[in-house]
Amino acid sequence: MSYDATEQRFAIRATLIANDTRESYDDIFLHRSKIGYHINSRTRDCVKFSLQEPFAPIEVPLNATFYGEVYEGSSSVAGANVLVNLWGGDTAERGRYSGSWTSVGCVPVTDSYTSATGGYIHRSLYDVTLGISDPNVFIPPSQCG
Questions:
Q1: 3-state secondary structure of 11
Q2: End-to-end CA separation in angstroms for the chain
Q3: Dihedral angle at the C-alpha atoms of 104, 111, 24, 13, nearest 10 degrees?
Q4: 1/62 Cα distance (integer angstroms)
Q5: What's the confidence (pLDDT) of residue 116?
Q6: Which residue, 10, 94, 99, 131, shows the most beta carbons closer than 10 Å to its own?
């Protein structure tokens, strides 16, 4: 996943495997424009759609409640865990919210919230790199029009 809080956009690459069939998709969510794209990586078919959900930043909301801290990972292997802070609460934009961020650096690990349409969203983040290594991931291919 690529994430840009300033420009309010996400780009997600997903691979689905079912019954010996493998398909890869790129999803681009441009919240400022309220437009999304779903692109089949193999066929390059593109579906453009209207975004109904407000942008959901990966952040500790200003009114969040600190729930505590825990170690995530294994305690039986040295260096195989990380201390995270747990935060949660309610926001006007996203309803009920919770998440975990590293104690050092405040790097996001998980976040969960109730979407505006009533669904539940949970994100787990791995191998987080700060900064945007390839801003082109937010540009839909020309066939998307």
A1: strand
A2: 23
A3: -50
A4: 24
A5: 65
A6: 99
Distance CA 75, CA 71 (A): 8
Closest among 138, 112, 136 to 125, alpha carbons compared: 112
Q: Is 126:106 a contact under the CB 8 Å cutoff?
A: no
CA-CA distance, 67 to 1, in Å (whole number)? Answer: 27
Of 23, 26, 36, 28, residue with least CA distance to 10: 28
Q: Using alpha carbons, list the distances in angstroms from residue 16 to 22, 27, 41, 44, 48.
A: 6, 13, 11, 16, 20
Residue with tokens 């669904």: 119
Q: List the beta bridge partners of residue 13.
A: 26
For residue range 87-102, list pLDDT tens digits in order.
Answer: 999 887 777 889 999 9
